[in-house]
Amino acid sequence: MTSSTRTLWACLAPWMLSVGLMVGATGAQAQANNYPNKPIRLVVGYAPGGVADITARMVAQKLSDAMGQQVVVDNKPSAGGIVAGETVAKADPDGYTLLHMNYGNAVSAAMFNKMPYDIKRDFLPISAMGFFDVVMLVDKSSDIQSVQDFIAKAKANPEKYNIGTVSLGSGQHMSAVLFKSLAGLNTTIVPYRTTPSLMLALKSKDISVVFEIISPAMPLIRSGEIKAMAVSSGTRFRGLPEVPTLAESGVKGYNVTAWNGVAAPAKTPRPIIERLNKEINAALALPDVRSKFQEVGIDARGGTPEELRDILSSEIDKWNNLVTTMKLERQ
Predict the structure, then answer these.
(1) Which of 3, 114, 136, 212 has its CA 20 to 30 A from that of 179?
(2) Distance between CA 94 and CA 109 in Å, rounded?
(3) What is the share, in percent, of the chain residues with pLDDT greater than 70?
């Protein structure tokens, strides 16, 4: 290549790069302007009927109405939602395959050594959808009168007083681990496969207290079959204003807020992310959505993609620190 040719290429290179970027941006905008032109799949890593499924289906219906294309909920239950995450991570980044992301994804990132995807690298957060508590529960016939009463009893007799949760490594399980750490307990945490089996164990006194998300517990709390000792977040749940937080109950520094939201595969065009963010936030502002969420113990609240990204990153750091502090075995 002659010196004159090199000079010509040096002059043309910035212009060609600029043209390439403009063409790419124009293509992405055109794709977004035509979006959606076919059904959208929202992949949920939990079985039908649970809180994740309920919230996903309510928002999916509103998105279908607003966007003129059906938003289909695709349930792919698995430990930690790994199958759902892998499905979306491998999908085309075109806005037609989305992930129902939740705090369990942050826990899995801390608990599992090997994952088929990187939750921070392989996804673009779109919007949060809801925030809710984990609740500490006892049976109506229990002799445990308060959080501090349980702590005192468990310290005095750790083999008798234990804690039940669902699924080893779940968000509920890690919430119990954090409680055990901050309260200075040496009691056993017993994982169960499902919420019904967990509640049956509580009723039969196989376990002393339960840590579970508030939604499936609300009917039993309202009927008086079980008692809520405390909620996990920094403020009291509006649906149970008489129930204190764990921090108020003397567990200094305890603050766990469960959450869920929506994410897309990495490299999904920004205009599509923005469109979905706009429509999700509009859906969450609808009175019937807010009311239904409140019925199952969820505060309907969206936000920006950046806010959800920051929540995810902060949660991963928190659970990583707990795994290290408690010397838990990563799976």
Answers:
(1) 114
(2) 25
(3) 90
pLDDT for 99 equals 98
Give the tens place of pLDDT for each residue, 150-195. Answer: 999 999 999 999 999 998 888 899 999 999 999 999 999 999 988 8
8 Å CB contact between 43 and 86: no
Task: Write the CA distances from 241 to 41, 82, 230, integer angstroms.
Answer: 37, 35, 10
Taking 3-state DSSP, the helix, strand and coil percentages for the chain, each rounded to the nearest 5, stand at: 45, 20, 35
pLDDT at position 24, please? 54
Answer whether 266's CB lies under 8 Å from 93's CB: yes
Those residues with Cβ within 8 angstroms of residue 43's Cβ, 6 or more apart along the chain or in another chain: 74, 76, 84, 87, 88, 97, 98, 99, 100
- The rounded distance, in Å, linking the Cα atoms of 146 and 49 is 31
